[in-house]
Write a structure and sequence with these properties.
The protein is of the alpha+beta class. The chain has helices spanning about 60-75, 125, 135-155, 160-165, 165-185, 195-220, 235-255, 275-290, 295-305, 310-345, 345-350, 355-385, 390-400, 410-440, 445-465, 470-484, and strands at about 30-35, 40-45, 50, 85-95, 100-110, 115. About 60% of the residues lie in helices and about 5% in strands. The protein has a six-stranded mixed β-sheet. It is elongated, with a radius of gyration of 33 Å.
Length: about 475
């Protein structure tokens, strides 16, 4: 909702000291609450109904009351026991197709920590693209995630959650996640080690505040209680609910409690389809032209982008590694650009015709190096924009980048372009320099230079051979043996 910039109170009367909170007419049954982040919402304590719609407007008040009464009657007719643990949330809106006013709703069960509806609900938006969900014990986690979102949006009147040891429950979850991050490189925690440590400090502060409240209560009523039964403030509930929803969502994405549960961050739970022959050949050609860089990038991407989902710690580590790689490639490309330009200024090179192999190869080397620089800068800018976003935004970005015929390989190829162009710049420079050397050298020096160059080539290929994929050579050996 927006207001006119010119509207507002222009003066304050003298000696005004009290500025009371917003209050509604008691006869309406509605109370106004302010969310810790500033949002105004309303609560009907008798009907246990929440809404963001402005019930101070009579037309909205009548519509909300009418919708609430109809839904509560429908719930009773469906056998729902409307105990004090059942809450109803309503929101007035406009149908984008018809332009008519509609009322969205959901019920919350505070005992079960779930949401439910009185009408059939599609799961496409609820499951957020997760495939293969077949068991209600699995669906429970995504419903609990939505429940904690509800608690974060409406943190007032949460005595039940406060009295059931919610803060201690969250502390146990955080402690376990911290231990998992420390002892495993493939932790499923939605937070990194540093973030978990900060969360644990926040929980300790909240527990310290509650202990202080309990001590005051003990002095007043002269009784001893071991656990806190004091209601958490809306600020505390908002903090706790926000963290709880992250862990509930992670359990849903990782198929917690299912036979196919994901136990490591880079573990896929879906069967992979066989790749089409044409696509395989095209990928092999690109792999060859990029000096094997896409395969290395693909391995790193598969550790982060697993089953169309990711986590914030792994996404940030992945982008930090990419940034360091592109910075180093930029430095190498700058050096190579200087070498190419210096090579073109050599008198013996300038003396040759513009159609000579040395000149053409030097030009191609310069173009390749400049291309590597430009692509590195563009990718680094993209990385700064999306490298620190949340896991949800990272999923949107990765989905868009991998939505092509090559799938995930498209992003791997894109990330390998700076390295591939730099390597081609080096190859073209070697061709230009070699042509210049071998064209103007005597036979004796040619033999010595050729032997030296051969030794350098062998030493260059040595690390490639040492890191070779043994399965490829075993496959070739098996083929050759079978043909005999």
């Amino acid at each position: 909702m927006q207001i006119k910039s010119s509207s507002g109170i222009e003066s304050i009367a003298p000696v005004v000291r009290r500025y009371p909170k917003r209050r509604l007419d008691i006869s309406t049954g509605w109370e106004a609450h302010v969310h810790p982040e500033g949002t105004l919402y309303f609560y009907h304590s008798m009907k246990r109904v929440f809404t963001d719609s402005n019930v101070q407007v009579p037309a909205f008040l009548n519509e909300i009351n009418h919708c609430a009464d109809n839904l509560l009657d429908l719930a009773r007719s469906n056998g729902v026991d409307l105990t004090s643990a059942i809450e109803l949330t309503l929101q007035l809106g406009m149908d984008p197709d018809t332009g008519e006013r509609v009322c969205s709703y959901y019920f919350a069960d505070r005992d079960e920590r779930t949401l439910f509806w009185l009408h059939e609900l599609g799961t496409e938006d609820l499951f957020e693209g997760v495939r293969g969900v077949k068991d209600h014990s699995h669906i429970r986690y995504v419903i609990q995630f939505q429940y904690w979102v509800h608690c974060e949006l409406y943190p007032n009147n949460r005595e039940v959650e406060s009295q059931n040891g919610l803060l201690m429950e969250l502390r146990e979850i955080i402690v376990h996640a911290s231990a998992d991050v420390i002892t495993s490189e493939k932790s499923l925690s939605p937070f990194g080690g540093e973030e978990l440590s900060k969360i644990l400090d926040l929980i300790s502060h909240l527990q310290g505040a509650q202990r202080h409240i309990n001590i005051v209560d003990l002095i007043k009523v002269k009784r001893i209680t071991e656990t806190t039964s004091k209601e958490c403030s809306p600020h505390s509930i908002c903090v706790i609910a926000r963290f709880m929803q992250y862990f509930a969502r992670a359990k849903f994405f990782n198929f917690c409690g299912q036979s196919c549960a994901r136990l490591e961050a880079d573990q896929s739970i879906y069967l992979t389809d066989d790749e089409h022959m044409v696509k395989s050949v095209m990928c092999w050609i690109v792999e060859l032209l990029c000096f094997g860089a896409p395969r290395a990038q693909m391995k790193e991407l598969q550790r982060v982008w697993v089953d169309k989902s990711t986590s914030s710690p792994r996404w940030k580590d992945f982008n930090d590694k990419l940034s360091r790689e592109w910075i180093s490639i930029t430095i190498y490309s700058t050096v190579m650009l200087t070498v190419d330009l210096s090579f073109l200024t050599v008198p013996s090179v300038n003396a040759q015709t513009s159609q000579s192999v040395a000149i053409i190869a030097a030009y191609l080397s310069t173009f390749s190096v400049v291309g590597s620089l430009v692509v590195s800068i563009l990718l680094a800018g993209q990385n700064r924009k999306y490298g620190s976003v949340s896991a949800n935004n990272a999923v949107v970005f990765l989905t868009r980048m991998t939505n092509s015929i090559f799938g995930d390989r498209a992003l791997a190829i894109l990330h390998s372009l700076p390295y591939a162009l730099l390597m081609w710049g080096m190859v073209y420079f070697v061709i230009a320099f070699s042509f210049l050397v071998f064209k103007s050298t005597s036979i004796i020096l040619l033999g010595i230079t050729g032997c030296g160059m051969l030794i350098v080539i062998l030493l260059t290929l040595w690390p490639i051979w040492a890191a070779r994929n043994g399965r490829v050579f075993s496959w070739l050996r098996g083929r050759l043996t079978g043909s005999e």
